[in-house]
Design goal:
Layout lengths: L1 H4 L8 H28 L7 H27 L3 H31 L2
């Protein structure tokens, strides 16, 4: 491919992919933190896996909505299929993060 179309061909699509990654990561991290804080402040949630799951689902919705314009350019998917793909990814990412943070705290930070 590089021989026939030039070395620049290997980088085609790189800019839209990087723009999407920036939007997705910024939206995921910010919306997860805000959602978790909001849920904890309601008094109906404790800082446990249920709270992490609900905050992750909210974060997945926000991330899907925020990154749709960029992702439509790249893949042409609709909202529901995109959320069906991004939602579980967001949930697993933040549940693992919270559980690893908790394990780290127990193993290394507790006297």
């Amino acid at each position: 491919m590089a021989r026939e179309e030039g070395i620049g061909t290997l980088w085609r699509g790189c800019i839209p992919t990087m723009a999407r990654a920036v939007v997705v990561n910024a939206a995921q991290l910010a919306s997860y933190s805000q959602s978790k804080q909001f849920l904890l402040e309601t008094g109906r949630f404790r800082d446990d896996i249920l709270c992490h799951f609900c905050a992750s689902m909210i974060s997945g919705l926000v991330t899907t909505a925020a990154s749709m314009p960029v992702d439509i350019v790249k893949t042409r998917w609709g909202f529901t299929p995109y959320y069906a793909r991004l939602g579980p990814h967001t949930v697993l990412t933040f549940i693992f993060l919270e559980q690893l943070n908790r394990a780290y705290g127990r193993l290394f930070l507790t006297p």
